[in-house]
Predict the structure of Germin-like protein.
Amino acid sequence: MFHIFFLLPLLLSTSYASVNDFCVADLKSPDSPAGYPCKPPAKVTTHDFVYAGLAAEGSTSNIINAAVTPAFVAQFPGLNGLGLSAARLDIAPGGVIPLHTHPGASELLIVTEGLVTVGFIASDNSVYVKKLSKGQLFILPQGLLHFQLSYGKSKAVAYAVFSSSNPGLQILDFALFASNFSSSLITQTTFLDPEQVKKLKSVLGGSG
Amino acid sequence: MFHIFFLLPLLLSTSYASVNDFCVADLKSPDSPAGYPCKPPAKVTTHDFVYAGLAAEGSTSNIINAAVTPAFVAQFPGLNGLGLSAARLDIAPGGVIPLHTHPGASELLIVTEGLVTVGFIASDNSVYVKKLSKGQLFILPQGLLHFQLSYGKSKAVAYAVFSSSNPGLQILDFALFASNFSSSLITQTTFLDPEQVKKLKSVLGGSG
Amino acid sequence: MFHIFFLLPLLLSTSYASVNDFCVADLKSPDSPAGYPCKPPAKVTTHDFVYAGLAAEGSTSNIINAAVTPAFVAQFPGLNGLGLSAARLDIAPGGVIPLHTHPGASELLIVTEGLVTVGFIASDNSVYVKKLSKGQLFILPQGLLHFQLSYGKSKAVAYAVFSSSNPGLQILDFALFASNFSSSLITQTTFLDPEQVKKLKSVLGGSG
Amino acid sequence: MFHIFFLLPLLLSTSYASVNDFCVADLKSPDSPAGYPCKPPAKVTTHDFVYAGLAAEGSTSNIINAAVTPAFVAQFPGLNGLGLSAARLDIAPGGVIPLHTHPGASELLIVTEGLVTVGFIASDNSVYVKKLSKGQLFILPQGLLHFQLSYGKSKAVAYAVFSSSNPGLQILDFALFASNFSSSLITQTTFLDPEQVKKLKSVLGGSG
Amino acid sequence: MFHIFFLLPLLLSTSYASVNDFCVADLKSPDSPAGYPCKPPAKVTTHDFVYAGLAAEGSTSNIINAAVTPAFVAQFPGLNGLGLSAARLDIAPGGVIPLHTHPGASELLIVTEGLVTVGFIASDNSVYVKKLSKGQLFILPQGLLHFQLSYGKSKAVAYAVFSSSNPGLQILDFALFASNFSSSLITQTTFLDPEQVKKLKSVLGGSG
Amino acid sequence: MFHIFFLLPLLLSTSYASVNDFCVADLKSPDSPAGYPCKPPAKVTTHDFVYAGLAAEGSTSNIINAAVTPAFVAQFPGLNGLGLSAARLDIAPGGVIPLHTHPGASELLIVTEGLVTVGFIASDNSVYVKKLSKGQLFILPQGLLHFQLSYGKSKAVAYAVFSSSNPGLQILDFALFASNFSSSLITQTTFLDPEQVKKLKSVLGGSG
């Protein structure tokens, strides 16, 4: 490289400044099927790539003795369009993340503390259940019913990581019994007894 | 589930309200390569997921004795970003949907009334033609020239379903003879005779 | 076009024969994340693009008074890789397609006979329900719990079309009560009473 | 970096050797919707990433005074799965690449010699035509009818680059008049006169 | 649901068994651009969805005082086609994961122990660096140079999660100085001095 | 076609005008993960599909005796969403395009003048180098370090074509030595000597 000390005209024009390596979400603008519009590049700072909201323990003083703390694009705008998001699971002894699905993503579960039983049900009604300990991984294919629960005597912590920045979360019991899905339609579209439906709606706050 | 009657703090924060299971098109905003921006979630109603525009028969009193009634994203905004759209085909006896392509989607044809001949031509110039009756399906791979015509004595109805919410539609004769594609360029880029071009431009309204 | 009558050497080499406009599934070879390997092009015939299996009425003499007849890639190999598939729904009066999800696709519902109530529950537990009549369309976003039922006095027929050649189907009650998902895990991961679980397992044939 | 002179155990296991930066096509195995299976990594050489087949001028001694020489995955296996391919266009004075579509890709045209008129017709029958000179680029959106012709007194050369390793090519006149698409179906599905069809079939070799 | 106790013919045929909710990699078959062929569904067990290889600490007794232990599809076949993978980073005090890129994926970093400095350089040469503590997340956009190092007095552990089951890993210094990239080409294509290149090749084992 | 001379009501409603065959970028609106919003269709002209900015030779009077002139979406808005872009490489004798990556695209190189040596380094540190002459093609897989240099006595010209309308460009030496990446972090995350780093920062203008 002979001319190394002669820094002449720039190799490339400044137009490269517009290359979009990333697209930090502007959450105040409307979403689109591919994600949010990008924040102006000039306003992007290191802060946009960091999220500290999963550092604190979620409160497990609730009906399920567990907490799900999301770091989806709505919480962590730097994820926008990059095909990744996460959630922290805190599960007290005896706690459970009830049966749920993520309509738009597969999930990779990483246990970082305690003992976690994870399981899912496939389309052919096969059931896959596994007891995991610290450091073990489990992959949950997209859109299938699954759960996590703590099987140890101390609390468990796990990270769920998703293949979308906006994976969605549909909790079965909440969809049925905490919504305004009418009791009549529930008994027509499931095999549940009306008494069971009535009882759970009263517990979970559903109407209709 | 011991604590079932003690509904304590919510499992999840309200931030989940922003999860985008769907993205109903805001057709007044500019389109993008992935579709339209989403209508604000708070304004979405059941109405956005329904489309009644294909319930009525299309008029076949025209040059082709047939009608194509689209339910693309422009007509049915709830399709936005979901990779699906449809069209209703009404074909009177002797009617025909002339040779055309969909630049951005494959098509699944479902015959629901009458008798339909469908066919397409592949890149290697192979021709695939089939006479279909009620209830039969035919798959038309993306971007290839194809047609549908009624071969029975009564009218035919079929639904064409597409693998995009905005599949496009390029009708061969309209592209050539109902446009301002100049006669000179047509004869240069096809093997058609100038007289044929002139005649069809006069029929279909082309200029240039 | 002066030289039109002198057909000289071919414009293009025969190598174009290998262009893959389509990829009819070779179902005897292993599947892959993108679909099945392609049947040799020389063996593809018109027959590969046709499917007649939805022309016949499905039997509704069963517990749900309804039938789902699939035309997924396993039944209709021509769909492979083209991002589309279908199913025929036959619903006798009072019949119902119970709550279910498609883990890998959105669904466009087209009612072609009778009266159908369709509904889905979104991630935020909003419920969208609509009574449809012949010719109406309804879009069901990917991965969410939904159902169809007949609300008229005569049978209903509808086509469900999917944005994948292999959309999957997880029927909620079957996943829970017709599988070997243990009663203990069901009661831990839902709020259902053990008696309800026991009863439905006995009805639907589940074990564990 | 204190320990720079003490090269200790390898940072990473040899399992990284299986990372697939690329997937050179094994053309002897069946294709799939996502492309061909990969050649074993151990057999990949620099030669797999090079293609010299576009270096030679294509013969323009034919009915269109032009030649299209493809470098698709079938000719250049290193392109497999990488979303790119190319073709060389040689167009003698007065020559033309007739109206055609690429069912599976957009095209970027780069003129490297001579003068080229390029044009396409959009779904709404708008026509976009432009005379290009050396070094100019033109973008042709996926699946639309387009053409290229030489408008100068010397030959023209251009490279067409595609957004797929297997873009497909459907030449309008060949699809209609060099295939076994029956004359009866052609006149039914276009507005062409039977005499015109008969004449062009005789020129281009079609049957049926 | 009147007929609940009369379990009649099955709702659906057994053909649903072929629905591919997942596609566990058959690593003995050739890879493809979309991933490996699927293991036969009948041979899939719960074990295929679990990976324990990240539970053990990686050895940091090496030149970088750090270890990267991958859980890519080659190690964890259940990830195949699901758009996710992971790696465990162990970084002793003073250790560093040197500058590297992942050619095919974005990375979400989750610190689970200790203190980690992470940084990346964007296309416009902007530098984003952040000191992270336990529980904090950082998103690294696809394909950009980045690094992680321990800035605390005790070892750090982090999980890197990727938006592909096969993200790739190109370590800058290894690409330059542990390969057979010739010294002549290195000095021509970087601004490095020949003495520097020679020294680092001797340290890292490069040739040429 | 009996009724050919009676052009009756239009086959299709005007709603087709909104079909988006293309989406010319409105560069004044914010970008999104899928590209820019579309310019209003009514304002699109032929000019939007043409780019003349690569017709002129780039100046090679600089430190690398070479120039890269981009035709990315920021320069050529018609490319938006179509999965293609290009750049012109001018390389004087002895000139070099230094080691760089494109984070978001594979590259197809087409040599149109002179002699070009091209090479890339794979994830497993294999090196692939090839001397190309006019008309030869080389494919560079996404995200890997690569270079181009002129090995002849006259200048070389090549077109690089990319599988994205916004491929990105990270030049290794500029990322390290023309940025504000601190010398301390450079020496920690590479094996480079502090003196080398200091020297190159002074040449290339880096700080920190």
Summary: Helices of chain C lie at 172-177, 183-189, 194-204.
